[in-house]
Write a sequence for this structure.
């Protein structure tokens, strides 16, 4: 084979590999214009890829994002989840904290206002699992649901946070059902299935909320025990994290964080989790 032919073959092989890598990193992108979309796996349920442990972060990726060391790998998830045996239509469990002795906490992000491309890179680099509770009119703005599809393609869960983020306790039972079931329908259209998990805006709910959630196919109402701040966290009980705590965070940007980026805020949170002797596990593996 002549040198010129050999060079052309090597160049074609490299180009093909580059295209495959680009497609893998892009994940499932999509338009938020409301046009026809190809259904995906159920929004809140792990895909075949997400149900397996995430592959390790790239060497030194943690340093790139301001961490002194990588987060420890979480232990193997329990054989039985809290929602195993749930009967359709039954009142959902209200979960603030996962009962476990594992030194793990669970990170959740709400709303969907900030769509920072740097956070996409951070999530891909660090491979720290989290769950997203999305509000439809907030998630659709700007880059739209395509942004969250890319995060979901990394193995992170997508769940329900209502259509328009109202205080549900101020609404009638029927209006609450429209808010919850409406977002179930929107996420099912986008991802191919109704989520099992629901978070009420502001953590406010009543008996009508639970009844509506049950009618909409929700298995658990997820609250929290710790909240992410710009530089650290606040705790519902005591002065630190406990095993099984659910951490509430938000998709927020510099305008709402006094100039701090979302990636810096997440780094601060992860450093605090590490300093307290914990790592992060996937909520869907326990719930």
């Amino acid at each position: 084979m002549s040198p010129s032919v050999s060079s052309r073959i090597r160049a074609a092989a490299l180009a093909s590999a580059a295209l495959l890598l680009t497609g893998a990193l892009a994940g499932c992108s999509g338009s938020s214009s409301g046009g026809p979309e190809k259904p995906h796996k159920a929004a809140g349920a792990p895909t075949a890829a997400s149900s397996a442990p995430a592959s390790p972060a790239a060497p030194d990726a943690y340093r790139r994002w301001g961490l002194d060391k990588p987060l420890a790998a979480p232990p193997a998830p329990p054989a039985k989840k809290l929602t195993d045996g749930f009967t359709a239509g039954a009142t959902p469990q209200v979960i603030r904290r996962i009962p476990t002795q594992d030194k793990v906490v669970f990170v959740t992000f709400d709303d969907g206002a900030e769509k920072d491309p740097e956070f996409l890179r951070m999530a891909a680099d660090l491979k720290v699992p989290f769950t997203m509770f999305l509000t439809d009119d907030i998630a659709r703005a700007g880059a739209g649901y395509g942004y969250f599809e890319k995060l979901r393609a990394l193995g992170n869960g997508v769940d329900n946070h209502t259509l328009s983020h109202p205080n549900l306790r101020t609404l009638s039972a029927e209006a609450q059902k429209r808010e919850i079931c409406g977002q179930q329908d929107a996420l099912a259209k986008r991802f191919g299935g109704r989520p099992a998990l629901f978070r009420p805006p502001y953590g406010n709910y009543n008996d009508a909320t639970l009844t509506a959630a049950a009618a909409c196919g929700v298995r658990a109402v997820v609250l929290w025990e710790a909240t992410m701040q710009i530089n650290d966290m606040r705790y519902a009980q005591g002065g630190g994290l406990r095993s099984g705590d659910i951490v509430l965070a938000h998709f927020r940007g510099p305008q709402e964080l006094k100039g701090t980026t979302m990636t810096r805020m997440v780094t601060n949170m992860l450093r605090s989790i590490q300093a307290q002797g914990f790592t992060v596990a996937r909520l869907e593996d326990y719930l």
In short: The longest helix spans residues 3-26. Helices lie at 3-26, 61-64, 117-126, 136-139, 145-152, 173-191, 207-215, 262-275.
